[in-house]
Design brief:
Elements (H helix, E strand, L loop, with lengths): L2 H7 L1 H35 L1 H16 L2 H12 L3 H11 L1 H13 L3 H9 L4 H31 L11 H11 L2 H33 L1
Helix pairs in contact: 2-3, 2-5, 2-6, 2-8, 4-5, 6-8, 7-8, 8-10, 9-10
Family: Belongs to the binding-protein-dependent transport system permease family.
Protein name: ABC transporter permease
Keywords: Membrane, Transmembrane, Transmembrane helix, Transport
Length: 209
């Protein structure tokens, strides 16, 4: 069977796998972004939080993705939830690091001026510090997003449909066609996501100038 014949025959299935991949990606990146920014703020503000959270996140980040997926099976079962939690954990560290770094590098004179004007701490955080750190934060989100797009292919090994399903099928059947299709589509999605977030990063940087 040729590549075009395979695409024509399994087109609907391929489209379904793309949507499933994007759904998993969107949910895991959203969770990683919310938790990563929240922890990054806490790490930047409180030394005790940094001493506890950062080593734990570093340890989880160092674990191979397939190990996290395997460990999640007895805890969360085989399926969507079992795949989502480990992936979202893997995406936290780049966002956490960049958030903490971005906040640490905000111009202290601007913050002091805001305090002098009577801005409360939360207003300073959301109106001055986070907007100033946003290009760096988006850079962390971009790193996390590209990583998650690729790592998501491993979810096929615990019974969750994604573009990894095509790759696993190709390996199992010694058939290069689904393997090539799954790999190419994953690479294309990673490039698109990277391009969009690079654009968002530039827009955020331009707003500061």
């Amino acid at each position: 069977m040729s590549l075009m014949d395979y695409i024509s025959l399994y087109r609907d299935n391929i489209i379904d796998l793309i949507w499933q991949h994007l759904l998993l990606f969107s949910l895991s990146l959203l969770g990683a972004t919310v938790l990563g920014i929240g922890l990054g703020i806490a790490v930047a503000r409180l030394r005790i939080v940094a001493s506890v959270i950062v080593p734990i996140v570093n340890l989880l980040q160092a674990c191979p993705e397939i190990v996290l997926l395997a460990v999640s099976i007895p805890l969360l079962g085989i399926g969507f939830q079992g795949a989502l939690i480990p992936l979202f954990v893997k995406g936290v560290l780049p966002i956490l690091r960049n958030t903490a770094s971005g906040l640490a590098n905000v111009d202290e004179r601007t913050v002091e001026a805001a305090r002098g004007l009577g801005f409360p701490p939360l207003q300073i955080l959301f109106r001055i510090e986070l907007p100033s750190a946003m290009p760096v934060i988006i850079s962390g989100i971009r790193v996390s997003a590209v990583m998650l797009i690729s790592v998501l292919t491993l979810t096929a090994y615990i019974g969750v449909d994604s573009l990894g399903t095509l790759i696993v099928q190709g390996i199992a059947r010694m058939d290069p066609i689904p393997l090539i299709i799954g790999s190419i589509l994953t690479a294309i999605l990673a490039l698109i996501v990277n391009y969009l977030l690079v654009g968002a990063e530039r827009v955020a940087a331009d707003r500061l100038t």
